[in-house]
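Sat 14:20. Reprocessing the chain from the morning session after the first attempt stalled halfway. Input below, unchanged.
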Amino acid sequence: MVNRRSAMGLSAGAAILGATAVSRGWGESIENRSPSGFRWISDFAAKGKGATDDTGTFQRAIDYVRNIALHTRDTSCLPALMIPAGRYVLTETIDTAPWIKLCSVGGVLLDFSQLPVGWDGLTCRNETTLPATELRFPGDRSPFLDGTGGTISILGPGKARAEGWGIVMGNRQAGFSGAVRDAGGRNVVVTGWRGALRIDPLNTYLTAWFSSRFEQNRENGIYVAAGVGRSVNSGERMTFVDCTFAGSARAVDINSDSMDFVFDACSFDFNGDVVYFGRQARFGTVALNHCHIEGIDGLLVNATASGKHLRTVFHDSIVLPRRWKRKDLNNAPRQLVAGTAKFSASGVEWRFESPPQGALTALIGDEVPVESVTAMSFQKVQALPWRGSVINADSLFTLDRPGTRVDALTHWSMSVATPGQTAGQIVASDTVAGNSAVASSRQALRLASNDLDNAPFSVITRTPFPVSPGETVLAACTATATGTTGRTAFSFQFFAAGGVPLSVSESQSAANELPSAQAAVPAGAVQAVLKTTFTGWTGKLEINELAVWRSS
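Finished this time. Tokens:
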């Protein structure tokens, strides 16, 4: 509490700042106080009371600096507000501005645990008509929350029940001259809120946060709210350096357009989705450089609900996607990037701890527009980064209705050693849903035989798919069986124009981490057919996917 500041803290502050630390009452002239370069927060405590609530003290101090700026119509040369080490109980939202500096002298705890659960903790807005002046917003260019002298911790009403955000940045209306720019924080910890940092995209840009932690907040570490129709003059170079985002459903949740975020040397630990784009996110870029990402229940990039003009870029980072809370799901290579945002990755090290559940489970979804994937590194378990666009029709067996017999499929045909021995049909299947962060109802081709292990059979693409000479085509199959799992052999038959056969490339799956087949397309080939032969399988066999794609 403000009124419990120790004599040791006072003398330390005096030594640091070269001023007496005598607490004086509200309403005295500036000349009778500390030097104009700083003010102690405690100078604004109400007289004659045993303070149990520091809300008024903080707001009076902030309003004091705000009034100087409004009176002089200038944000340069304003005094900083020094907060001595200690715990401060705050029961209402504190409203500040980017050019009002709250600085710690020792470790500071801003305790909002008694705040009404629907209220925000600290808002940083610039809803004034102050001109930019010749210096162009001179008071903004430093953290408005500066924990250099000791961490500033912002504790909320509780992760489970809070409905407000710890920090809110941005204006509520677009008509003000003031902008929330060149603002941010240093050495700040935000915990126990619905979300740590909310950004309202109205004249909010050039944000910079350093060495801060946004952890154990229920929904998001960073949340960009939807603007009124669209963002206004917002989103340029939102920068985070040496920060940690942990313990939230979404680490970065963007629901507005024109947002460009850069994360450098940051950690993303134990979140649902790491980067999530909402429906109002239509264009912008999120770049992660030299970051560490660990513990993902959902997706590394989730753009399944957003627009098409978004980008995510990962450089020289480490991804260890073990599960956070969903311990029932296997910690194997699985889809981690989905949706319509463009994706680029270079020098990313992937660390998996369990064997893959299916050869076709690529880290990057087929629908993702991949700009570049280079220099991938894998520890313990090899994974399939990306398949590009699947080029054979009906690779998921979804174009024919459940109940369609195998001899009536539109894009597939069957070949068996003993005609009439094997029966099959399309069935609804959820067997692969648990292996994907984007679980959905799937279909499968189910085959049954009394003697599959003695009767090899083949599934063949009825419709040829296009190929180009010199490229590499790959194929793989995910299948499950109630009996014995056998072997799978792949055969590519290439054709020249007019359906003239050229050559055949054959390969058989092996018991390795990623069984698949690949073949170089010979000169003159324009089409190909894939024949997949199953040998030694017993019981009921369900083929969930059988796909061909080009090498990236």
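Confidence is low (pLDDT under 50) at residues 1-35, 431-440.
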